[in-house]
């Protein structure tokens, strides 16, 4: 009973199959393709459907001749999108049939919620905290140069059991802030600015406003603006790069037998001025990076990539996903797996992984770094996207599980529209 309730209260209503094709405004099937699917997010285009208000629709799946109501959300946009979960286990090569009706929706309590405080944006699943996004400027410890102050990053990132995976302002690298993604050597007209190493006092990144907040039974999250500020431009502070972060957590059980969250972070980049920018090739910069908690070291943590590389070998190589796992004193193991989308630049993406002798004790740092081996030119007027998914979990996962989740991310189930 608990499992059925968790899977979005999927049996809300059952109605006769006679209604299924006669009055539906959208009839579609979801095909699993060549992969097995377990509780997988699915998007359905609502192009051509004039009314996109969630409260005007109800969604049903046809199961053994009966219609079973399903939870869903509608994401507004140039083309509205319906999001749902292909719940349970769906074998490879299978199809599932759905009908959307224009009808008054009976809303249920949101499962993923987003709370805005004076300092942070808090993403929660039920009463459990998933992550905090820092929107207020956070200063380094007393006595440390205030050049290290920053906003616009994720900390803490927490597992379902409450283990904190991230760290900020470590004494060896005060500019490390949880999960973040500034760029290092950025050529702007006649100079190069470092937005990463704040002690250089060449630039910084700042939270610049909230675009949207979403609560829901399928996903919840937020969209925020971040400004890359150049201290070396024509003005004392010059906006160089516009950035938007879209962060969302899915209301699913992604892995059987362990507690886990599935969180997406998509970043959109554009040039703020009239001249091209060049992200020069370097071993750090952009993508997505994490400074892990202070408990992890070379003796109690591991790194494994989709290509079978361990921490000893991973630095500078490419991967579809990379898993970081480590022990917490008296709290067992927890981990985070980073998935890179195949549409990302330089995918499979190069990475930066600290060597095992880092800081003497083997502190752990990981980053997907799309400019590791090749410079990247951004032209004015274009928008560039980098898309990542994170599995945040307690316990351990194996390579087959990570491969399955990457397949869901990279090659989601296909939706076939039958009638409108």
Tell me what you see in this structure.
The structure is a single chain. With 420 residues, this protein is mainly beta. The protein folds into two domains: 2-107, Immunoglobulin-like; 112-410, Beta-galactosidase, Chain A, domain 5, CATH 2.70.98. It is 6% helix and 47% strand. The chain contains four helices and 32 strands. The protein has helices spanning 2-6, 19-22, 311-314, 399-410, and strands at 14-15, 26-31, 37-45, 57-63, 66-70, 73-75, 81-90, 95-102, 112-116, 120-125, 128-134, 153-157, 168-170, 173-177, 179-180, 186-188, 191-193, 203-214, 219-230, 238-250, 260-271, 277-279, 288-291, 301-305, 318-319, 321-328, 332-340, 349-353, 365-368, 376-378, 384-394, 414-419. The protein has an eight-stranded antiparallel beta sheet, with helices on one face. The chain has a six-stranded antiparallel beta sheet with strand order 1-5-4-8-2-32. The chain has a five-stranded antiparallel beta sheet with strand order 15-23-29-28-25, with no helix packed on it. It is globular, with a radius of gyration of 22 Å.
Brief rundown of the structure:
The chain has 420 residues and is mainly β. Helices cover 6% and strands 47% of the residues.
Give a topology summary:
Blueprint: H1 2-6, E1 14-15, H2 19-22, E2 26-31, E3 37-45, E4 57-63, E5 66-70, E6 73-75, E7 81-90, E8 95-102, E9 112-116, E10 120-125, E11 128-134, E12 153-157, E13 168-170, E14 173-177, E15 179-180, E16 186-188, E17 191-193, E18 203-214, E19 219-230, E20 238-250, E21 260-271, E22 277-279, E23 288-291, E24 301-305, H3 311-314, E25 318-319, E26 321-328, E27 332-340, E28 349-353, E29 365-368, E30 376-378, E31 384-394, H4 399-410, E32 414-419
Antiparallel strand pairs: 1-5, 2-8, 2-32, 3-7, 4-5, 4-8, 6-7, 9-10, 10-11, 11-12, 13-14, 15-23, 16-17, 16-22, 18-19, 19-20, 20-21, 21-31, 22-30, 23-29, 24-26, 25-28, 26-27, 27-31, 28-29
């Amino acid at each position: 009973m608990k499992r059925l309730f968790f899977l979005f209260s999927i049996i809300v209503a059952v109605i006769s199959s006679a209604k299924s094709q006669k009055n539906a405004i959208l009839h579609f099937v979801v095909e699993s393709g060549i992969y097995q699917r377990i509780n997988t997010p699915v998007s359905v285009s609502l192009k051509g459907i004039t009314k996109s208000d969630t409260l005007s629709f109800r969604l049903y799946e046809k199961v053994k001749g009966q219609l079973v109501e399903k939870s869903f959300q509608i994401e507004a946009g140039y083309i509205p999108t319906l999001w749902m979960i292909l719940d349970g286990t769906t074998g490879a090569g299978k199809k599932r049939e759905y009908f959307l009706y224009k009808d008054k929706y009976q809303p249920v309590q949101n499962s993923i919620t987003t709370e805005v405080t004076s300092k942070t944006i808090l993403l929660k699943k039920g009463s459990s905290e998933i992550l905090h996004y820092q929107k207020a400027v956070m200063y380094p410890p007393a006595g440390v140069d205030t050049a290290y102050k920053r906003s616009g990053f994720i900390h803490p990132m927490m597992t379902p059991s409450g283990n904190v995976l991230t760290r900020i302002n470590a004494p060896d690298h005060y500019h490390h802030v949880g999960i973040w993604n500034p760029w290092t050597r950025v050529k702007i007209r006649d100079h190069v600015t470092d937005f990463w190493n704040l002690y250089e006092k060449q630039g910084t990144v700042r939270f610049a406003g909230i675009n949207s907040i979403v609560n829901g039974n399928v996903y919840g999250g937020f969209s925020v603006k971040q400004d890359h500020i150049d201290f070396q431009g024509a003005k004392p502070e010059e906006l160089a790069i516009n950035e938007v972060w879209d962060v969302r957590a899915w209301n699913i059980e992604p892995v059987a037998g362990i507690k886990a969250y599935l969180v997406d972070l998509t970043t959109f980049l554009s040039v703020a001025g009239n001249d091209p920018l060049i992200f020069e090739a370097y071993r750090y910069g952009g993508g997505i990076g994490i400074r892990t908690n202070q408990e992890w070291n070379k003796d109690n943590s591991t790194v494994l990539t989709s290509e079978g590389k361990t921490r000893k070998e991973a630095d500078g190589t490419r991967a579809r996903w990379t898993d970081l796992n480590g022990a917490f004193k008296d709290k067992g193991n927890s981990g985070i797996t980073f998935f890179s989308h195949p549409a990302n630049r330089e995918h499979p993406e190069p990475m930066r992984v600290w060597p095992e002798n880092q800081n003497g004790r083997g502190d752990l740092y990981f980053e997907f770094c799309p400019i590791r081996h090749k410079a990247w030119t951004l032209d004015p007027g274009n928008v560039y996207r980098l898309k990542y998914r994170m599995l945040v979990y307690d316990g351990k996962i194996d390579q087959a599980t990570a491969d399955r989740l990457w397949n869901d991310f990279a090659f989601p189930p296909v939706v076939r529209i039958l009638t409108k």
